[in-house]
Amino acid sequence: MRKLYEARDDETVEGALRCPRCGAAYPIIDHIPRMLPEDLAGEMRALNQGFFARHPGLLSRAQKGDGNSESARALKRTFRSFSFQWNAFGDMYGFWEDNFLDYVEPLTPEFFEGKLGCDAGCGFGRHLRYAVEYGAEVVGLDLSEAVLAAYRNTRDNPRAHVVQGDIYRPPFAPKTFDFLYSIGVLHHLPDPMAGFCSLVRYVKPGGRLFAWVYGPRGGVSESVTRALRRATTRMDYRLLRALCVALAVGLRLFSHYPYRLLSKVPALAGLAQRLPIHDHHRYPFRVVVADAFDRLSVPLVRYYSRDELRRWCESTGLVDPQIRRRFRNNESWRVLGTVPA
Ligand SMILES: C[S@@+](CC[C@H](N)C(=O)[O-])C[C@H]1O[C@@H](n2cnc3c(N)ncnc32)[C@H](O)[C@@H]1O
Fold this sequence. Notes:
By secondary structure, the chain is of the alpha/beta class. The chain has three domains: 2-67, no CATH class; 96-216 and 303-338, Rossmann fold (3-Layer(aba) Sandwich); 219-297, no CATH class. It contains 14 helices and eleven strands. Strands 1-2-3-4-7-6-5-8-9-11-10 form an eleven-stranded mixed β-sheet, with helices on both faces. Strand 10 and strand 11 form a beta hairpin. The protein is globular. The two termini are 27 Å apart. Residues 4-8 have low confidence and may be disordered. Residues 78, 82, 86, 121-123, 126-127, 141-144, 146, 166-168, 183-185, 188-189, 294 line the site of S-adenosylmethionine.
C-alpha cells in the first residue's frame, strides 16, 4: 500500500492508501485507514460527507456497495449498533486491566513483550491499550466506528495502531502476527466458525491464537434478555439507551445492593450468588448501562458448547488447543492454540 496524501506531524490525519497491484484506494479518515467491505460503502459515505467532498477522487469505490442481501443487512445492523455503543460508552477505567488479564488467562503480561499482534474486533480499544502497555506492537481491527474510540483510547502509545476492516477480509498479509486475540466478537458474526478460520490465516506458524466466546446460557436473566431482544434489536439507539439506564437502576436496587449485603452473611452467600448479573455490582453505573445495551442491541448472538469449539480447533489444525470454561454469572469459553507450521 502507498500513501496518497501526506502527514501532519508523523501521522497521516487524512488521505488514502492505494494498492499498487489493483489500484484500489482506501480512505484514511480521522487518522484511521478505512478498509471496509463494499457493503458498508454507503455507511462510510454518509458518515464522512465532508471528507468525500474534499477528496471527490476517492468517491468511486465509496459509491459502490450498498448491498441489500440478508448478510449485507446483518452487517449494516452490526456496524450501526456497535458504532453507537462504543462511541456512547467507550470510557477507559483502571479495572479494564484486570478484566483483560482475566479474559486472556493463561496469557500473562510477559507474553506480549516484543511481539507483533492483532486485536480482532477491538471495540473501543480497552484490551489493545494493555496489550501495547505490556510491550507488544498491536493492530486493533474493528468493523464499526468504534475505531474512533479505540484511536482516542490508545493514541498516546505509538505501538498501538487502529484499522477499520472486516474479520472475514482483514487488510493484512497472511502469516503476519505473532499472536492474535479476539474477545467477545466471534459470537456476533453471521458465521463465527468462518471468522475463526479466517483469523488463523493471519498468524505466523507457531504463533498463538486466543478467542473468548459465549458459552451456553440459561436462567431468568437470559430468558428476560431473549424476550426483550425481540423488540430492542430494532429500537432507536437513543431510546434503547434510556431503557438501559432504567434497567441498570433496577439491577442496582434489586441485585447489586442486595448482593453486597447478602454476601457478607455466610449463611446467605449462596442466595447472593443467585442474584442476576450480580458481579456487575463492582462496576460503575455507566458500565452496567453499557452492558445492558450490549446484550439488548447487537443483532446477532450465538452460544457455543465445548464440542462445537473443539470442531473449530480441529478444522484449523490448531496445535495443543485448550478450551477452558470461564464462569462469572454466565458461562463462556477461552480458546487458545498454536497455529501449525
Ligand atoms: C462486544 S464488542 C467487543 C469489543 C472488544 N473486543 C471488547 O471486548 O471490548 C464486538 C466488537 O466486534 C466488532 N465486530 C463485529 N463484527 C465484526 C467484523 N465482521 N469484523 C471486525 N469487527 C467486527 C464490533 O464492531 C464490536 O466493536
